Amino acid sequence: MWMYLGLLSAVFLGLHNLCKKHAVQGNEVFPVLLGTISSGFLVLLPLYLGSQFATDFTKSIGFYIEPISLQKHGLIFIKSGIMAGSWILAYQALKHLPITIVTPIRSAGPFFTFIGAIFIYQERPNPLQWIGFFLIIGSVILYSKIGKKEGIVFTRNKWIFAIIAATFLGASSGLYDKFLIQSLLLNPQTLQFWFCFYTVAILLVILSITWFPYAEKRHAFKFRWSIPAVGVLLQAADYFYFKALQDPEALIMLLSAIKRSQIIIAVVIGGLIFKEQNKRKKLVPLAGIMLGVFLILYS
Predict the structure, then answer these.
(1) Is the pLDDT assigned to residue 111 strictly greater than 60?
(2) Of 233, 255, 248, 239, nearest to 189 (Cα)?
(3) Which position has the higher pLDDT, 166 or 277?
(4) CA distances from 99 to 19, 31, 254 (A)
(5) Of the candidates 260, 262, 280, the residue with the CA atom closest to the CA atom of residue 271
(6) Whole-angstrom Cα distance, residue 205 to residue 88?
(7) Is 19 in contact with 230 (CB distance < 8 Å)?
(8) What residue ranges do the domains of the chain occupy?
(9) pTM here?
(10) Which of 175, 225, 257, 261 could be joined to 116 by an S-S link, Cβ 3.0–4.6 Å?
(11) How far apart, in whole angstroms, are the C-alpha atoms of residue 183 and residue 122?
(12) What is the DSSP-derived secondary structure letter of residue 260?
C-alpha cells in the first residue's frame, strides 16, 4: 500500500513543479516561497482549529493534530530549517534554469537518500536496486551534456551548484522524515502543520531583511494563481508521502525513488508548456531514470 501512496505523492509533486516554474518567472524567489508555504499553512489551519475546538469530529475523520512536546517542536523546527534552505536554493535555480534540466537533477535525490538509508537505517539494497540507482545517476550526467547545448555549462553555472545543494538538503530531510514519522510517531497532519508554521516564521525573518523594506521589490512582485496552487499541491503530496512512511515496512530509499516518477509530468508536459529546447533528446535520459525507478520497484 505504501508504494501506491508514494505514486500518488509523485503525481501531486509533478503538478506542483509545473506550477512552481510558472510562479517564479519574473518574480523574486523569497516572496513566492512565502506565498506558497503560507497557502499550505492556511489549508491546514482549519484542521488545527478543529483539533482544538471539535476534537472528537477531527479524530473521527482522521485529521486530528495532536499536542506535542517542546522537544518535538524543536525537532520539527530543524526540519523546517533544512527544507527552507533547500527550497530557497531550488527556487533560485528554477528561476534561472529550464525545468527540463532542474527536475532531472532533483531526480538524483534518491541516490543521496539511498546512501543515508544504508548507513543510518541499515536498509539493504539488492543488485537490481544498485543498478537502478546508478542508472538514475548516469542519466543525470547525460542530462548535463544536453544542457550544454542550451548554453548551460554545468561546471561553470552557479545555479547548477544551487540545485545540487538543494537536492542534497532535500534528501537529508527525507531521511529525517523517517525518524520523525516512525521513531517519534508523529502523524502526517501534525508534522505538516508545525513544519509549515516554522517555515513561514523563518521566511518572514528573511524577507524582513531582504524584501519588505524595499518598495521597488514589493511593487515588482506579481501575484499569480500558481503561487497558492503550489502550496496546496505540496501539502497533498506531503500528506500521501507521510502516510506511506507510517507503514513500518516502508523503505525510505525505495519511496524516495518512486517519487521521482514525477519527472514524467515535469519533463514531458512542462517541456511542451514552457517550449523548452531539446525535448526529444531529453527523453533518452528520462527513459534511463524511469528504467532505474522500475528496477527498484521490480526488485
Answers:
(1) yes
(2) 239
(3) 166
(4) 11, 20, 24
(5) 280
(6) 14
(7) yes
(8) 2-298
(9) 0.82
(10) 175
(11) 15
(12) G
- Distances from the Cα of 49 to the Cαs of 52, 53, 74, in angstroms? 5, 6, 22
Distance, CA of 139 to CA of 221 (rounded, Å): 36
Does 276 have pLDDT greater than 60?
no
Could you give the CA distance from residue 169 to residue 101 in angstroms, rounded to a whole number?
18
Residue with cell 537502478: 132
Q: Which cell is 280 given?
A: 526529444
Q: Which three cell numbers stand for residue 94?
A: 528554477
Q: Quick count: other Cβ atoms within 10 Å of Cβ 140?
A: 22
* DSSP SS3 for 165: helix
Instruction: Report d(CA 21, CA 16) in Å as an integer.
Output: 9
The pLDDT value recorded for residue 144 is 61
Q: Which three cell numbers stand for residue 199?
A: 517555515
C-alpha cell at 218: 514589493
Burial, 89: exposed, middle or buried (Cβ in 10 Å; 0-12, 13-18, 19+)? buried
Helix orientation angle between 99-106 and 158-178, rounded to the nearest 10 degrees = 40
Amino acid at 52: Q
The 3-class secondary structure across 17-62, one letter per residue, is: HHHHHHHHCCCCHHHHHHHHHHHHHHHHHHHHHHHHHCHHHHHHCC
Residues in the chain: 299
